[in-house]
Amino acid sequence: MKGIRPPKHPFEYNGIEWPTMKISGTNTHIFAVGDWGGLAGTLPHNSQIIQYKGGQTMGPHVMGRYRTDAKTHDLSCSTPEMSDCFATNGTKCPGRCGWIEDIDTQAQHLVANQMIKRAKMNNPDYLLNVGDNFYWGGIFGKCGDTPMSKVNDVTRAQFNWIFENVYKGPGLDGKPWLSVLGNHDWGGREMDAAWDQQIAYTWVSKRWVLPAPYWMQKVEYVDQGYTVDILMIDSNIEDADEDVNSNPEHNICGAAHNPKGSSCAKVG
């Protein structure tokens, strides 16, 4: 971002009002998306985000997760069972999992393709990105491992494979993605993933905008005579329980999955 230096720590710009966007014209189109980022596979330096056989190749790969009955909300397919569906191309997949190869294995691309098609017709002004950008547990690495003035090659690979190479084309190229962190970006069941690299990426990208966990964007529609204030709020406190033994599969501060002594104190 020209005119604003990279932060010294990821919270430096908390509450910042980002430079006003001015949009001309009388048509308003905005895209919104969330929970979109797949698994990367094998990253540089043999870093790995792999859930099942076949997932070692360049991502994005869809994460196999549990499913519930649409009517009763009872568990109908566990995460290990769904993972087996992907690993075996459905040959060892319980029918109650409802797995459909051409849909389940291409979930992110199917949505992205519709975004690409609509962007050609509607030319969105910007995109609202509500988080969970990289599954399972965010950017590979640990908070504070890389200075905020740099984006390491593992981070670049994840962004290229999961974001840049997927959401592109007329109407999408160069459009701001106004972003926040989801619980999976913090680490999923942990809080010490390299979430700070998602903030740092703001300063090397032409469209990724995430200068802090909390920030604000003003949009001025100059030909329509109104402005919009967009408040970007990190709500992951709802997934951070002070009781480290509470809700172990969802508590990002829990003891079950955070390595003993885990801390992001060094980032500020």
From TrEMBL:
Keyword Glycoprotein: no
Keywords for this protein: Hydrolase, Signal
Organism, scientific name: Symbiodinium pilosum (Dinoflagellate)
Domain Calcineurin-like phosphoesterase: 108-203
Statement: the UniProt record of this protein carries the keyword Heme: no
One Pfam family hit: Metallophos
Sample GO molecular function, one term: hydrolase activity
Protein name: ACP5 protein
Superkingdom, taxonomy of origin: Eukaryota
Source species taxonomy: Eukaryota, Sar, Alveolata, Dinophyceae, Suessiales
